[in-house]
Amino acid sequence: MKASAIVILLFALFSFSLACAQDSTSAPKTGTTRSESLQDRWYYGGNIGFNLLNDYTYLGIFPLIGYKVTPQFSVGGKAGYAYISDDRYKLPSSVNTSNYGGSAFSRYRIVPQLYVHGEFAYWSYENVKSYNLGNGTYTTERDWVPFLWLGGGHLRRLH
């Protein structure tokens, strides 16, 4: 029990992800009307993440921007970049790679605080193809991978 608590604490200390969103899509209070300007329909956010644990480094940034088509429905896009350095296997050189890509999403508000989310993403991953023990070099290949993410979320008012 004590060992698992220590592992969880270490994970919390060395793995960090910060998510932030400025949601200008807040629904009006009951009984009020709200006319939105074109500028009020845009919202933005994203996340920044890093991990510095056991000879493994991960740094990533993933901004997003969205546009509210109606009070309940919005669309948007994300871009992202992640740098990875892996020295866990104690090879003569660490494996350094970059992954990047983008996505398009849509959100529908069931009620003002809850939404469903669908997203199509296309990401480029660099993978180690082979490693030469003689000179300590490796060759990589890049693969483009499609994803379909479905889920939901909860919003709370920031003001």
Could you describe the 3D structure shown?
It is a single chain. With 159 residues, the chain is mainly β. It is built from one helix and seven strands, in the order H-E-E-E-E-E-E-E. The longest helix has 13 residues. The radius of gyration is 21 Å and the shape is elongated. About 19% of the residues have low confidence.
Radius of gyration: 21 Å
Shape: elongated
Quaternary organisation: single chain
How much helical structure, as a percent, in the residues?
under 10%
Q: How many runs of DSSP E, i.e. beta strands?
A: 7
Order of helices and strands: HEEEEEEE
Stretches with pLDDT under 50, minimum 5 residues = 4-33
Largest sheet: 7 strands, antiparallel
Strand content: over 45%
Question: What is the overall number of helices?
Answer: 1
Secondary-structure map:
Blueprint: H1 2-14, E1 15-22, E2 42-53, E3 56-68, E4 73-86, E5 95-111, E6 114-132, E7 137-154
Antiparallel strand pairs: 1-2, 2-3, 3-4, 4-5, 5-6, 6-7
Main features:
seven-stranded antiparallel β-sheet, 64% strand, single chain, elongated, 7 strands, mainly beta
